[in-house]
Amino acid sequence: MALSIFKCIYCNKEYDIQEIRYRCECGDLLEVIHDLSQSIPNPNDWKKSLDGQMADIAFRRYQAVLFPSLPEDKLITLFEGDTPLYDVTHSIPRFKSIKLKHEGLNPTLSFKDRGMVAGVSWANHLGCENVICASTGDTSAAMAAYAAAAPNMKGIVLLPKGKISPEQLAQSISFGALTIGIETDFDGCMNLVQELTQKHKIYLLNSMNPVRIEGQKAIGIETLHQLNWQVPDWFVIPVGNAGNISALGKGLRELYELGIIDKLPRLAGIQTEGASPLFESFKNGYTKLVPQKAKPTKASAIQIGDPVSYKKAIRELKHFDGVVEAVSEKELM
Q1: Which secondary structure element, helix H or strand E, spans residue 290, and what is its range?
Q2: 265 — alpha (psi -120 to 50), left (phi > 0) or beta?
Q3: For the chain, what are the domain ranges?
Q4: What is the pLDDT along the chain (333 residues), one digit of tens a residue?
Q5: What is the C-alpha to C-alpha distance for residues 153 and 331, in angstroms, rounded to an integer?
Q6: What is the CA radius of gyration of the chain?
Q7: In terms of CATH architecture, what is 231-332?
Q8: Among 197, 235, 267, 332, which is least packed, fewest CB within 10 Å?
Q9: Full-model pTM
């Protein structure tokens, strides 16, 4: 088997990892499958070696499970990762232990940097000169920053006009991305991005690109490393386009299959009441996703009514005996 391949999550058709492709010929999503027996032939030795690599960036430290096919000289990093894990048990004493992972301390202030180190580095490896994303703010900031750090690469950002915070908008502009506000919501921007990448030589960097998901696996892996590989009962994660919960589950499954961890946690996905298509699907036994017109919310990054990674997310939620909940504006604050 090749070290890494693309594989359809529905029909299992396989594709060369070097091919620029985001969906299977059947129309469904792809995922990246690695032969981890090649990249990590001795899991126990690999696990023991990680403590001696703390001076390295997180992506490189965990690359053997994140994306082993990426050549070393194509890596584009802004020294993301190694974000703190805060113990807040004293604030919520009814829990025996509760910790918060502060992904806002990444270079562009969100977890999206974890995905872009993989996505932009792979685009750099493929020789892509133009990269694009639709965004509610965080994705655009991350993509613009990483594209600016890559040689001969231009970022293009499509945003729902007037619905992005000044801090997020300023980043994509200041990093030199072509930034366009469109009179629509995120889902409208996403549809346009897909049309543009089908017609032009522009590399898509939203989470429907399975390479980006691989980078975001680092959040869960790094958290477990910080916990000395003691698996918590639950991982709780907000859900917008559903890429992050898909990445979290995939990374945890791979660690378990390698024997790095000896049990699996449960997963909880959290949405806002005004943008809760996954929650509604969960209540109905995941029978189908009914897209919503997402309503304004303080949690603008998850104001998404038609999550692209829905099928990946429900697969992980089912595997981890997970749950989905929707919260009010008051509760999320």
Answers
A1: none
A2: beta
A3: 111-204, 231-332
A4: 799 999 999 999 999 999 999 999 999 999 999 999 999 999 999 999 999 999 999 999 999 999 999 999 999 999 999 999 999 999 999 999 999 999 999 999 999 999 999 999 999 999 999 999 999 889 999 999 999 999 999 999 999 998 888 888 999 999 999 999 999 999 999 999 999 999 999 999 999 999 999 999 999 999 999 999 999 999 999 999 999 999 999 999 999 999 999 999 999 999 999 999 999 999 999 988 999 998 989 888 898 899 999 999 999 999 999 999 999 999 988
A5: 41
A6: 19
A7: 3-Layer(aba) Sandwich (3.40)
A8: 332
A9: 0.96
Asked if 155 and 211 touch (Cβ cutoff 8 Å), the reply is no
* Residues 81/101, Cβ–Cβ less than 8 Å: no
Distance CA 328, CA 333 (A): 9
Class of domain 111-204: alpha beta
Asked whether 100 and 232 are in contact (CB, 8 A), the reply is: no
